[in-house]
Amino acid sequence: LNEKLVCGYPLSIFFIVVNEFCERFSYYGMRAVLVLYFKYFLRWDDDLATSIYHTFVALCYLTPILGAIVADSWLGKFKTIIYLSIVYAVGQVAMAVSAIHDITDSDRDGTPDSMTFHIVLSMVGLFLIALGTGGIKPCVAAFGGDQFGEHQDRQRRTFFSVFYLCINGGSLLSTIITPVLRAQECGIYSKQKCYSLAFGVPAALMVVALVVFIIGSGMYYKAEPQGNIMLDVCKCIGFAIKNRYRHRSKQYPKRQHWMDWAEEKYDKLLIAQIKMVLKVLFLYIPLPMFWTLFDQKGSRWTLQATTMDGNFGALVIQPDQMQTVNPILILTLVPIMDSLIYPLIKKCGLNFTSNFYFSFILSNFQKTLPTFPSTSQSQLKLLNMGSNSVTVKLPGNDALILPAAQVYPFINNCNTKFTNLLPEVILFKSATNDLTSKPQEGNNAIRFVNGMKTAVNVSTAAADFGLIEPFYYSNYSQIKNGKATFTLRSGSQSCEYSTNFGFGSSYTFFIHSTLVFGSNCQDSVTAVEDIKPNSVHMALQIPQYFFITAGEVMFSVTGLEFSYSQAPSNMKAVLQAGWLFTVAIGNFIVLIVAELAKIPKQWAEYVLFASLLVAVCVIFSIMAYFYTYIDPTEIEAQFKKKINEDDEDDKSKPGKAEVEMVKRDSIKCHDEYDKATQTKM
Ligand SMILES: N[C@@H](CC(=O)O)C(=O)NCC(=O)O
């Protein structure tokens, strides 16, 4: 093993953790803007964008199996990491290129002319990224673990904690930086949101990750691959099942473990190793449910944040930036848990076998949405532009008194005919144009109605509503939260109207017929609130983040180390891949329940997920209680010793009686394995 030690740690792990930091920066940075790229660049709808996003995440956690097989049976971890990192970097570059709108924008209007080119290139890029990030993931963690000797258990545990901190350091920085890069405007012929830069920086970081890993090359301990182990494992399991089936009759004595039915054909060491792996994989069965909830922070929780108020005083948080709460909490909680809580638990003599995790359910945040008209109804607004109140009688409705300069919104059937309205009352009917959902990304959707007899031009620093004809309305424009000043212009005359916006509201501003230019037009514009601003603060998501992150610290950091320490020497990466596979299944559950089942009420979906998780936690606690820790190195050493002794005996005393003895000894050794694994943790 590596001789260069710094403070008791192999120097080589420095390169591994830096590599992980850069790789996770690359992955999470790209992922942070991916849904928005789908929606605003590729122009996909919400459902398609969310489905492809979760499919991509699931794929990233399915490919570890491929990487692990290649590493453990063929190339070894070191070469697998190098080759797949190149694939990964190429994928990131493809994503960055796919986001350059100028490539296909031959008419230079700012929108790509051949969307197919961008879609195909980005899908190829995402596939290569999934192959790369997933393929190297189990290898990097296991390769890091390989750098420690048998006597360095404590250091190896600390390594896995530091490794996790690096993951979250990379994720935190990139989740802050890439949304900022995306918000920049760039382009050759026309300036557009800079997705190419938001993908380009992660691509550069992936190249850095690769270079750092190669620099450390001379210092690593590189365990040799041990043949096509996965094929042997599959064949051995297949044989055991077949053999058991062939001997199903009662006349054959039972064996201690169903894998023992492979003894006729397979090495006892291999059978013992498969038993170790199966034992751990069995324990993994309930785990996907944790990831089902956890990975919704990138989709459901972020969408929920768009319906919330992100004003934190000096800081205004964007909905997608709320995800940074998770890595921030990880960076705080992991050191606290490692240096304080775990030692305290150990001192108290508590057996901390399973980690319980609570989910926090926040109720429906759509309460700020008004009642929208159904497809057979239309939304009408009555606006009294006069200076006196008027009485309005609409068919099928009671007479209503409409005060001066006031708007009365109501919903009615489309085919209702309106007659005898006073000339100063505007009947504003805009069923097809009204916004029927919260504006995106916490913005406010604003439009103007011109009640004047002349056309008016309306603009702000952030948006231009254009020239609005008399008694006509503008399109919606998106305005950020905070104060906005609108300039109303008619010919050479102008005036200003200012107002404050929160998050996620929609307003229709009515310009009075009595407006006089040249002065402040504050009193000549009436604001009608179509959708209330978000009233629930984003800070209310923090407890949710706290609980899920506390669960992650106890469950995921320890799980990574557990998967390494319980794996036989030739299947370390395979078991890491098994652990990551649970994440893939978790994402498929989100896809099925959240995207396909389409539970109408969001709170009902949260309750369903939380209840499932509670049930799974109980099952997992029971399973964890009965799990017995093993020391794979010791078991393997015992088997190897026995095999060597048998070989020696075979050489010196060949004969039937001896063969029988060897067989008996092997079985004895096998019993020792079974006894060794009976000790509870
Ligand atoms: N806490 C997450 C990172 C994030 O979601 O920002 C984490 O540590 N995930 C593990 C990983 O390997 O990426």
UniProtKB/TrEMBL annotation:
Question: Encoded by which gene?
Answer: SLC15A1
InterPro entries, from UniProt? MFS_trans_sf, POT_fam, PTR2_symporter_CS
Q: Give me the reactions it catalyses.
A: glycylglycyl-L-proline(out) + H(+)(out) = glycylglycyl-L-proline(in) + H(+)(in); L-alanyl-L-aspartate(out) + 2 H(+)(out) = L-alanyl-L-aspartate(in) + 2 H(+)(in); carnosine(out) + H(+)(out) = carnosine(in) + H(+)(in); glycyl-sarcosine(out) + H(+)(out) = glycyl-sarcosine(in) + H(+)(in)
**Family note:** Belongs to the major facilitator superfamily. Proton-dependent oligopeptide transporter (POT/PTR) (TC 2.A.17) family.
Report the principal subcellular site: membrane
Alphabetically sorted, this entry's keywords are: Cell membrane, Glycoprotein, Membrane, Peptide transport, Protein transport, Symport, Transmembrane, Transmembrane helix, Transport
Gene3D superfamilies (alphabetical):
MFS general substrate transporter like domains
Q: How does it sit in the membrane?
A: Multi-pass membrane protein
SUPFAM superfamilies for the chain: MFS general substrate transporter
Q: Which residues cross the membrane?
A: 48-69, 81-103, 115-136, 157-177, 197-221, 276-294, 328-345, 576-594, 606-627
Example of a GO MF term = symporter activity
What organism, scientifically named, is this protein from? Lates calcarifer (Barramundi)
GO CC annotations on file: apical plasma membrane
What function is annotated for this protein?
Answer: Electrogenic proton-coupled amino-acid transporter that transports oligopeptides of 2 to 4 amino acids with a preference for dipeptides. Transports neutral and monovalently charged peptides with a proton to peptide stoichiometry of 1:1 or 2:1. Primarily responsible for the absorption of dietary di- and tripeptides from the small intestinal lumen. Mediates transepithelial transport of muramyl and N-formylated bacterial dipeptides contributing to recognition of pathogenic bacteria by the mucosal immune system.
**Name of the protein in question:** Solute carrier family 15 member 1
Q: Where in the cell is it found?
A: Apical cell membrane; Cell membrane; Membrane
The record's PANTHER family line, in alphabetical order, gives: OLIGOPEPTIDE TRANSPORTER-RELATED
The Gene Ontology biological process annotation of the record reads: oligopeptide transport; protein transport
Upper taxonomic classification of the species?
A: Eukaryota, Metazoa, Chordata, Craniata, Vertebrata
